[in-house]
Write a structure and sequence with these properties.
The chain is mainly alpha-helical and 357 residues long. The chain is 64% helix and 4% strand. It has two domains: 221 residues, no CATH class; 130 residues, no CATH class. InterPro entries: AcsF (IPR008434), Ferritin-like_SF (IPR009078), Rr_diiron-bd_dom (IPR003251).
Length: 357
């Protein structure tokens, strides 16, 4: 674990934290095929789109993200590994929300005049994500650091995803975000002695934003039969479920100190989030993963252990070639475990879906 002092030293200028080094586990910034999104045929789903839009327009959390007097104190009591783990959590969450803001804002801008309905929807999504990112960045400032979001915008690497991939991944990102926030909120409601910082009190309403965003992407997904009513759609659904669950497992277990600091068992929390997200995906995806398979979580944990070995190797001062050679066996472990997980027979969600909600 990186010490607090060394983490705070890694700054662009006083009080501004240098962005975390980009890895497979850091939130990524995305761009997509804007023309393909503009040309999406939403016929037959107008009522659902309008229903989701009405929810977004209502802006239920307009006055929710207002800091109260509880924040106005010194937070030096949160120190050591707990402090650094919490800063890491805030940074990752802020970067993820800001990434969503940039993508949704650009989609809204590119679709303006071409697809007014989607342009408005993405503008409303961007509004929520910007609000979340700003609130999290203010929380980081309580610990003497914040992110330069303008710097991130200009200097972060942008990854191109086809529009279909964006729909799959953002749907899952929003739904897994919902379950992460609501499970933490419920846990701390039952165990307030572990609520080390007032941010957690905001999670109940916050996660409803995540839920509404996911519902919007669910309508987009169901409006495109090729995403769920084809063999390719079923294979891609399984792939994105798996990659999101593997990434979540690696991230949670890598940052176990944070979850332990708020009284959560990281392993159990990871399982609960994945099981709930997988079940929620039944409403949108053509198939879901069999999380009850006896080897499912064992293989995910094996991936996490291999990733810890990779991180240890990366932190050494050995020559790059030597580190690559040492990494290869552990990379092979992750690839093999993911292949085995992918080949576990999936659960047909279409057969169990009575209505698309």
């Amino acid at each position: 674990m990186v010490s607090t002092s060394s983490a705070e030293a890694a700054s662009l200028r006083p009080g501004i934290k240098a962005p975390a080094q980009e890895t497979l586990l850091t939130p990524r910034f995305y761009t997509t095929d804007f023309d393909a999104v503009a040309q999406m045929d939403l016929s037959g789903h107008e009522d659902e789109i309008e229903s989701v839009l009405a929810e977004l327009r209502a802006d239920y959390n307009r006055y929710h993200f207002v800091r109260n007097a509880e924040f106005d104190q010194c937070w030096d009591s949160i120190d050591g590994e707990t402090r650094q783990a919490f800063i890491d959590f805030l940074e990752r969450s802020c970067t993820s929300e800001f990434s969503g803001f940039l993508l949704f804002k650009e989609l809204s801008r590119k679709l303006k005049g071409r697809n007014p309905v989607l342009s408005e929807a993405f503008a409303l999504l961007a509004r929520d994500e910007a609000r979340h990112a700003g609130f999290l960045n203010k929380a980081m400032a309580d610990f003497g650091l914040s992110l330069d979001l303008g710097y991130l915008t200009k200097n972060r690497t942008y990854t191109f995803f086809p529009s279909e991939w964006v729909i799959y991944t953002v749907y899952l990102s929003e739904k897994i975000g919902y379950w992460r926030y609501i499970l933490i909120y419920r846990h701390l409601e039952q165990h307030p002695e572990h609520r080390i910082y007032p941010l957690f009190k905001y999670f109940e309403s916050w996660c409803q934003d995540e839920n509404r965003h996911g519902d919007f992407f669910k309508v987009l997904l169901r409006s495109q039969p090729k995403l769920w009513n084809t063999l390719g759609g079923r294979l891609w659904a399984r792939f994105f479920l798996l990659t999101v669950f593997v990434t979540h497992t690696l991230t949670v277990l890598e940052r176990a100190t944070f979850y332990e600091s708020i009284g959560l068992d990281p392993d159990q929390f990871n399982k609960d989030v994945i099981r709930n997200t997988n079940e929620t995906a039944r409403r949108a995806f053509p198939c879901i993963l069999n999380t009850d398979h006896p080897t499912f979580f064992l293989r995910l944990n094996t991936c996490a252990i291999a990733n810890q070995h990779l991180a240890e190797i990366a932190s050494t001062q050995r020559p790059a070639v030597i580190k690559l050679i040492q990494k290869l066996p552990w990379m092979a472990v992750i690839i093999w475990q993911m292949l085995c997980l992918y080949l576990i027979p999936s659960v047909n969600a279409e057969q169990s879906r009575e209505t698309v909600r």
